[in-house]
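Throughout our pipeline, every protein is held as a single compact record rather than as scattered files. The remainder of this section carries one protein's record, kept here as part of the documentation.

===
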Amino acid sequence: MLRASCLLFLAPSILFAAPVDRCSQITAYESSPTFSGNTVASFGNQYDLNSCAGQPGVSLLPAAGQATDQVVKIQVEAACTATVTVVGSSSGANQSDPVVYAASTCPIADPGVTNFLDNSCLAAADATGALGTETITFAAQPGIDYFLYFDGFLAAQGPYDVTISGCTLSERLFANGFE
């Protein structure tokens, strides 16, 4: 009886993954359609874009994605079109000017090295300024890992809120608790 109670108590916390700085830190799939993050707490600009293969005509500002970034990993239950909306907010003197992109890869990055995700980019947005709202959409299939990157324009760092709609996120756990 005690074992079952412990599992029920622990299971919900396992299903929700917080945004992390680098792909090597991901320990669970994000399964909540709404969550928050804060790039002020991040260490480095591990991931960046010059262009987006999945959206060749997307207009990215030259300094888009140059701030510290965070990433989450998702899977979907069924074929769908994922819509990811990121709203920048402020905390003290920090104002988020969000940049969001989705990719099919998440390379393990050494600290101080920036990996460009141009070829694996599925969708990207950097159209608004500080405290703005950015939205991307991309086709998603079940059983495939997708990585959502939350970045900022120039050195803009700060809190942000994310809503994922159009898809049911998988509550799948990594086989060994990590991957």
Remarks:
- Residues 44 and 88 are 19 Å apart (CA to CA).
